[in-house]
Each structure stands twice: as structure tokens, then as C-alpha cells.
């Protein structure tokens, strides 16, 4: 049996591992197509042969749901993530993030690297956090927006931008950046990766994989990549 | 080599080769036809056709991909129509080839068109006086003379197809073994921590393949040119 | 039979030409820029005249009244262009055989004959790019002839060739004209070539037909002589080879009496056209003796036309007409007047091989 | 028009125009030089140069952008060097122009090269016998004869630059008013549900601009061709 | 003074030619494919010979021994190509003036003179694309001349032109030769053109120099006559115009005695080169009377050379040499032998304008 999963690209490392384990265990083959959540959602709406969809944000899962393509019962919030402030260099000084953090002074004429603040999830969350802390107005003009969070990370990693806001999962693996602060959990809407079975999913293998995603082995894989594993799917 | 790449990557390489070759070869006849029409005919829709051909160049690839998805997807008007005849592009490698072919089409057409415009119509006239019909003139005079331009267009299109990513991933997604081309695989690697070295390996493969195609086309074009110069 | 009557306007140049070309070679003769190539292009279908009609042997090639316009590839013309136009990507052999693919009838034997004639046997495997000017022209000539056309158009086909090669090709063109009956439209600046080959001559000036008619008439007409060039004025005699004599001479029977010329390589009994240039003819009151000239023909003065560069004297010799060009002083000195009986003196070597054509007029 | 687009979108349009025009104009001299070298000279690095020129076509744009970042970024080797002279690409529209110029370079070069290859060297020889040095021959004979090819290359490059997105955003990111080009704005709209219609508006603007450039180039090329054909 | 000695190998063709060309016109004469254009290209620097040396007035253009090779644009040659090579993107005027940009000296007055001479005044604003064959060639000719070269290379410059136009251009080329002292390398298939213009003649056959020397020598040498074409064999006489007589004749003083020809438009006292074709000369044992020919010169037979196509008789006339071509039969009939005194008879109209050149050798 083949299970086709459409998943946000940021999940690649963890999902590849989970899929391989699942395949070895059950003999079913899991094929994962990684792309941007928006692309995947649109493809599903246009009839893509995907059995499962794991989105990087809730909005695009909602769009799929609106199109009536979710298998009614199986949708859940699979993973969570946190936002961090990163700086170039291995041992950058820690920054206390709060309403009176002077980001402008910190940047010292440099740019703050983020994903696109109005359209890409990591950017949207970051902007919300800065807004709720009252920092957005001051730093707005200094923000360099990338098309995805990895590109923002690259800007900091290469030293092009001194600071950036990315997911904790991305920051962890890069040797050229250090996490200098975490945004307060209440300063931005919780970051959620919803997963759902789609209507075309027919066979048992699909559901089995969906279930396996919330299993113990999967949990370990996700956590290894820095994700928070949320309350179990139904 | 097989050690150096995982089976899945290896698959992506093979698929990319297949997609790019098919894209170039399948679009070639249309490319030649459109280039000829644009170079030699004056007709009402000339400007429109010309604009249409250049469109994939102007549009961000994602937009092209999205438009393809809307029209050639299973629910798309053209897609649904073709589905009746069993022709499916959506989420198949053929769709990737379609996307690459369309993205590369302006390059193919322009190179061929430039070559056609450089052919002296007096030679074609001479062939006509010797009894060759328009089609024969094209086949025996125009076509051999524009071969260097055709090779140039093909290699441009092939290179473009080997590198095309935005339209492909948007149209047919990134399904390993089915629609995962080299650039999509590279993209996926770049989206996660630690994927850079894998991405770099694949980039090297892509570059090597494209360079091989480039040298082949240069060599072919040069040997044709040498023949024509008469030495 | 080619019938043509066309008008066409280019900015700064107007063509308005009409003539009929009976079988044989029709020569278009005129200055540079007079419209010869334009006419030939119209016949080939490479140019669509604003107005007019072109017809070959009853087949309408182009007719502005009915809007009919046969595309070039269906006209079956073989065109030797003024500028070669060889296919650069094909070998000489492939160039030569190009027309054969489309020819109405294939004729394999001719290939090697024509290649030999044109002296291009060594070039067959080469591509035209690096051929010399004359080599290109010879290949172009071969290509047109080998396409088995129903009408041959030749735009200065021999201009880049040396006299020796010309002397080889001209007889072949004559044979083509006589044996196949292929009509040929022939553009040339060389009055000698025209005089030798042409059945019909069409004189073009500034896009208009100045005179058209049988070659013999046009060439011996004192009125058209200045256009062709005074040095080319002359009469055409029909002749038959009577004997090849031992000391390198050929005796011919003409309407004007026997004529001896330097050896002509043709069988006894064959018919020839001799062009006797007016300037080569000397007049004498008495039959001269002790001179090197071998031909002394008794003639009667028909008329005397003074003009620039001398006086043209038309002479009746038997049932033929001979033209002589002499100075005004000699005319006066000899007291020439119509009806006078004098002797025309002609050197045996005067009649050049280029002026001897095969076949009757 | 100003109503139809928000001021920020309007800014993106203007910036895209500027970036694309500068990219094309600034890369043109290099394009002509490289095309000439590839078409007419034989030198040891010929194949390498040729490969290099085609590279941006094969590489996924993100990779090109990343390589640009590594070399032309402030910390990059070339970037640090140029910084001394006050030349900065990072996060400037100039960087966007650089990215677009490089992405469009293969198209520019190939079109010009094809035209150069179609110029009869015999004409250049004739100019030389009349006393023109190599440079003069180029300026007075070759250049005028390849103008149609140059226009073709420029319009291809311009269209490509108008649509370029991946390399640009990776290299200089997206700073409204400074580096936010049309394609990034379009991309942003496509990332949010329901953004399609806004994206469509911008796509129309991009297409309109590119088509205007296309018609201009066709018109120029045709008027040059008409002059050359001698009518 | 041009000195040339080069070797070059093409696949299937080897060139090995050397000659010296003193000031004046040096004609390269030879069959199609014999290597004429190749030689001219080597002089222009468009072809780098495998071996050899080319030198003009002491300036080394190319020398394989020292590796010196002056690039074409620094050679100052004006080259009229066999195939036009006009710049298609420039108007006729711009084509004509192209060389002027780089010329060593500008000479404004000449422009309109040359344009008039070539009859291309109406074409100045046009582009070359749609010019007729002859028009192109005339523009190419003008372009080369107007570049003020130190050496003029002409590869069949008049091949596409009609006789009338040729007759206008040839005197101009003569003036160019005589007034400016410009050395000219001239390729032509027309022996008449060569004979008229050439100071020096170089006969080329299959890439080798068959004979080279002063035109008068080569043309009147019975040994080289067959190469040039028997009909073109003849002697060159130096002449001076003594009087323009009233009845349209010009009286000339030559070393062979007075000669009357049809009016030559040149001032009294000017020096000319007359080419008397061997075939136009008739021999008589007694001075003939009552004939139209005006020139009867007493001559002495120097030698008698039988060959194909007749007998060449070299005659001493005063201090000049005249060549006559007659049949073997006449030779026998008249009993010609060296030392015999006979009369050479020449029609006044025989000497064509094309055979009269200005300036003495
Ligand atoms: N397309 C055109 N536009 C304008 N003028 C033209 C065009 N084609 C030809 N002409 C002019 O028409 C005239 C006749 O040209 P054509 O080529 O028929 O002359 P031709 O008699 O063949 O001359 P030549 O002996 O020099 O080849 C020339 O003056 C030429 O410049
Ligand atoms: N690049 C080349 N490669 C091979 N053969 C060549 C090349 N260039 C010239 N030839 C040959 O060399 C010979 C001499 O050529 P060239 O052009 O000098 O002749 P030409 O005397 O000018 O003849 P024409 O009177 O026909 O113009 C020809 O047989 C030609 O085919
Ligand atoms: Mg013509
Ligand atoms: Mg030649």
C-alpha cells in the first residue's frame, strides 16, 4: 500500500525518519511531497492524490477543510514550535526579550531577518510577537523579509543580517548562529502544524500512518528536530 | 555514483533527465513552428502569439505553476477535457515535463527565431525555383541552416528545464519518484537544517548534466557551422 | 513560347515591358540597372508584378487580371542567378542534384556529361563556401540545367568565366537550345555572347523594351547597332560546311558565295550561323590580289548610313545581307552609293569561334 | 491606476522597472563582450566561460541567490572588497539588479551570440581593408548588424528580470521600497488564502510592462531589419 | 612596386606564385580557379600564406620568415571584391564614404567626380540590398577608390558591367594609374581589358606563374598568345595625336608611320597606347588601292610562327613591332618569309576604343 503525504517542507528531516520506520515496520510505502503549505493546499484543492496533509499553519488546513476535502474525523494539531531571536556568531550575548528591548540599538544599522511578515507563517508570528511587545513600530523599517524562514536564517548565518527571528527548530542546527532569546509564549498565537486525513485516503495504511504520527516513535523524531509535540490527534 | 547518491536522489536525477529531455524534445516541433511563424509570417495574432510565448519568462514561476494547476489540473478545464482521452498531467512526471517545457519555451523559440531571421531568403527562393515546395524548402534549406540555432535553443531549454523549480513544484508538487525533480529535491533539502550538503551534491549533479548537454550542443553546432563555411 | 507584358513600380524605377519569346534563346540586353533581372524574377515568380501577364507555352504563370499567380516551385524554371545562391550546407554534388528531387523526369546520364563540361568534377565533394567565383558560377549553371526545367533563365551566367571556359560552354548551350527546344531567357552584357546564342533579342532601356525581334534583324539593323555597341554590329549568315580542307581551313557555302574560315570543328554538311562583324569587312572597288585575306565577295551596296563612329554600309551578297563599317573618308574616297557593285573583303581569321553558332537562325 | 494599486504596490512596480532596466542596461556591455568572445574567439577558457554563463539557468534560483549572498554579501569575498569602494549590494535595489542581471545573463548572451554568428565575416574583412581597426569594424559593421539580436536579448533579459524572484529574494530579501520587486509582492499574496485576486492585479501589471517592452523591441528590430534589407 | 613570393596549400589546391609588379596596372590573368583571388587576398591580408613574403614600396606586408604580418586595416589597400561585399546597413553614400573615415588624406572634390563617373548619383540615399548587380559593383568600385589606398586591388571589377559603362570607367582607371601612380593589381578574364590597362601582365595557371612581364612583351609574344586567347594577340604601339581631322578621323604619329583612326577624344599632342590586334591586320604584296582601309604601312617580315588557328607573323614597322594573324594558306600563297617587305593593311575602325589607352608604356 502506498501512503502519499503532502507536508510542509520544514518537516522533512523528522518525517523522512518516521516514514522510513513506518515503512520498515508495516511494509507500506510512504511517499512524502514537501513544498510550501500554500502550494500543497492549492494542489489538494485541485485534486492532488494526497492521502494526508500536514500544514505549517492552520489557515491553509482550513482552506482545505472549506473545500470539503478532509475526511471528517481525522484532523488534529500535531506539532507546535516556538519563536526565537537569533544572532550571527556562535557565542552572541543573550538578549532579554520584553517590551523595553531596544532592538534598533541592538541592530546597530543592520537588518532584522524574518520571513515575509504578511504572508509566510514564521513572519506572521514574528510580526505578531513584535506587535504585542510594542516593538514593531520601531523596528519595522529594518526588517528584511525572506520568502521562507530558512532564507532568513541564511541571512543571519552568513552575517548579512546581525539578528533574525526564526523557529527554534531551524535555529538549533546552525553552527553560525546562536539563539539569544525566546519570545514569550503569550506574545504570539501558538504555532500549530495541523495534520489531517484527506477524503481520497481510502485504505487502512493511510490511517495507520496518520495514527503513527502521534505515536511514541514519531514523537521522538519530532522532538529531536526541536518541535513540540502537541495534544494527541483524535 | 550510486553510493554517492541515495536511491531517492538517484531517482530524482533520472527523473529530471527524463523530464528535461522530454520537455525539450516534445516542445521542439512547436518551437520551430512558432519561431518560423514569428520570423516569417505576418498575421493578425502575431503580437499576441509573441507575447504569449514570452509570458512564462515574465511571470514568476509560481504564478505559471498555479495557472497550470488551474488549467491542466484534474479540475481544470483543459485537464478535465484531456482526462477523457486518458491524458493526465496533474501530479505526473508528464506534468513536470509540461511545466518545464512551457518555462523553457521562450528560450527555445527565441534562439530558433533568431536563426531563421538570419537565413537569406534568396537561398529559399533559389530552392523554390528548383521545384521545392514551401515545406521542402524548409526541410532541405532552412532547417539545415538553422541547426546551430536549434541546438542553441535546445541547450538553453534543457538547462532551463534542469533548473526549473517554481512552476514544477507548484503544478505537480514534489512527489518522490513521480514528480520530484532535481531542483525540487534541492529545494526540500534547503528547507531543513543540515540539508545543505545534500543540496550541494545534487546541485553538482545538475550542473554536470547541464554542462554535458552544453558541450554536446556546442560541438554539434560547431561541426555544422564548419560544414557550412565550406572548409 | 514565352509571352510577357508586365508593369511594376519600385520607388525610383518603373518597369513596363512586353515581348514575345519564340523557342530558342531570347537575350535580354541592356545597361546595368535597366530592369533585366527584374523581368527574369517576374518570370521565375520571385517578384509579383503590379500588373500584367506572363505565359509560357499556353500555361499562365501570372496574370494580374485574374489574380492567378503560380508559385515559383510549380513553374519549372531553372534559374541561374546573377549572384550564385548556392546552398552552403550542401556539397557541390548535392547542389547539382537538388532540383532532381523535384524534377518531372530524371535523366541520370546527363549528370556526368554536364559535370565534365563545366569542369567541376574535382569539386563534387566540396561545399560551396570556399569555391572561387567562377567555380561557383559553373555549379550554379549546372544546378539549373540539371533541374530539367521547362524554361531556363540565365542572368549573366558566364560573366565570371574565362574565354576558354566560355568557349566550351557556349556550344553546349547551343545544343541545349537546338536539341531540347528548351526556351532560354538569357541576360548578358556581352554582345558577342548574345549574338552567338540568341534567336531573339530584346533590347531593354530604363525599364522599357527598345526593340525586340529575331537576332539577325536586330544585329544587322543600323538603327539598333549603337545600342548593342557599334563594334558588335554585324550580319548573320546561314552557312553549311562544305569541306574541311587540308591546310586548316573550312569551306562554307553561304548565300553570299563560298567563304573560307579557320578550322571549325563540326561535321561536313552541318549548318552554322556566322556572325560577320561590320568592322571586319573591308570594301574594295576592284577584286584585290596579292593580299592575305582569303574571302572576296562581290556585293551590291544597298544603303549607306552615316553615324557616329563611322558609316554603316548594308551590302547585298547573293541572297544575304552583309554589313560593313568604314570611315566617312573611305566612303567618300570610294564614292559609295546604293546600287554600286563592289567587293567585300574578309579575313578568314576574323570570324571568331564565339561568333559561329550551330543551327540555323 | 494609482487607485487601483496601493502605494506600496505602486512602489514595487516602480522598483521592478528600475531594477530590470538597470539590470539589462548594466549587463549589456558585458553581454556583448562575452557573446563576441564566445562567438568569435577561440581561447583556453572558452568552454569554462560558456558554462559559467549558462550556470544561472541550470541552478535553482535559490541556489544562485545563496551563492550571490556568499560572494557579494557584506561578508562575502567580493562584497567585502567592493565595500571598500562604497559599493554595496546587500539589501539594496542594486543587489536586486545584480541578481536579475545575472539570472538574465544567459539569455542576453545567447541571443547576441547567435546574431554575431550570423554576421558574414566577409563584410568585416571588407571593412578592415578599408582601414577600420578591429574595434572600428565592430562598432561600424558588426554592431549595427546585430542590433536585432541585441534587442531580442534585451527584451528576453528584461522579461526575465521582471519575473525573477527566487535569486533576488534570497540575496537581498524583501524590504518594501528598497528591494520589494513585483514578483516578491506577487509571491506574498499567493502565500495567504484569498490573496489570488491581489496577486492577479500585480501579475497584470508585470505582464503589461513586459509586453510593452516586447513590442518596443519588436518594433525596433523590425525597423532595423527593414533598413538592412534595403527597401 | 609590389614584390610577392608566396606558397599556400588548400586541400586540393597549391599556390606557389611570385612576381614583381612595377608601378601601373598589373593584371592577373588566368582561368577560373587558377588562384587569382587567393593571391589578391594574400596581398590584402585576408589570407595568411603558409610561406612567403609580400612587400609594397619597401613596406613589408607579410613575411613568414620574420613572422611579420601587417593586419588588413593597416595595409591601406582598396579592395574591389569579386562579390561586392557592400555594407547592407549603410546607404550607398555611407558605403562610399566608409573608407574616408580612416583615410590618410581626405579629398572631398573626388567624391562627386567618382559618383558621376560611376553613374550612381541617384542611388546615394538607397541601401545596397535591392541594387542591381551592376549597380552594386559600381558602388564597390567607388568605395575602394575613395578610400585613398596606397594599392588598389580589383578582382574582376567590371565583369557585371555593360560595354558602355566599361568604356566610361576604363579611361578613369587609366588616369588613376597615370596621374596618381597608384599601383593596381587587376584581375580580369577579359583580355581586351587587360591589354588596354595593364602595364604588366602576370599569367597564372593552376597556382603557378606561367609568364610575367611588360604588357607589350607578353601580348606580342607568339608563345603566350594561346594563353591569352589567339583573338587577343596583338602588338602595342606608342602613338601621339597629331591632328583631329574634319571628317571624324584622328591622325596619329607612331614609330610605324602615320595612322588614321576613328575620332579619339583626346587633345592634340597627347600620348596613347594603341593595341593593334593581330587578326585585324591584313598583309598585301603591293600597296592596294581602291579599298576602304585607310592605313597601309610598309613593313618587313621578322618571323613567321605557325600554330593552331593560324600563323602569327611578326612585322617590323619602323621601330615598332606589329603582329598579324593570317591563315596558313595565305602565308603560302603570299610566300611570306623573314626579311620580305610587304604592306600591312589596317582598317581605321578596327582599333576599338577599348584598345586605345592613354599614357605610354
Ligand atoms: N526592391 C527594389 N526597390 C527599389 N528599387 C529596386 C528594387 N529592385 C530593383 N530596383 C531597381 O530597379 C532597377 C532595375 O534593377 P535590375 O536588377 O532589374 O537591373 P538589371 O538590368 O538586372 O541591372 P544589372 O545589369 O546591373 O544587373 C535598378 O535601378 C534597381 O536599383
Ligand atoms: N579555403 C579553401 N579551401 C579549399 N580550397 C580553396 C579555398 N579557397 C580557395 N580554394 C580553391 O583554390 C582555387 C583557387 O581559388 P581562387 O578563388 O583563387 O581562384 P580564382 O583564380 O580567383 O578563380 P575565379 O576566376 O573563378 O574567381 C580554387 O580551386 C578554389 O576552389
Ligand atoms: Mg541584373
Ligand atoms: Mg576569383
UniProtKB/TrEMBL annotation, chains B, D:
PROSITE patterns for this protein: ABC_TM1
CDD domains: TM_PBP2 (cd06261)
Source species of the chain: Paracoccus marinaquae
Name of this chain's protein: Molybdenum transport system permease
InterPro entries found in the cross-reference section: MetI-like, ModB_ABC
Function: Part of the binding-protein-dependent transport system for molybdenum; probably responsible for the translocation of the substrate across the membrane.
Major subcellular location class: membrane
Claim: Cytoplasm is one of the keywords in the record: no
Topology in the lipid bilayer: Multi-pass membrane protein
Pfam families assigned to the protein according to its UniProt record, in alphabetical order: BPD_transp_1
Family listed: Belongs to the binding-protein-dependent transport system permease family. CysTW subfamily.
Superkingdom of source: Bacteria
TM helices/strands, residue ranges: 20-39, 51-73, 85-109, 135-159, 199-221
Chain ranges of the ABC transmembrane type-1 domain: 13-215
Keyword annotations: Cell inner membrane, Cell membrane, Membrane, Molybdenum, Transmembrane, Transmembrane helix, Transport
Subcellular location: Cell inner membrane; Cell membrane
Primary gene name: modB
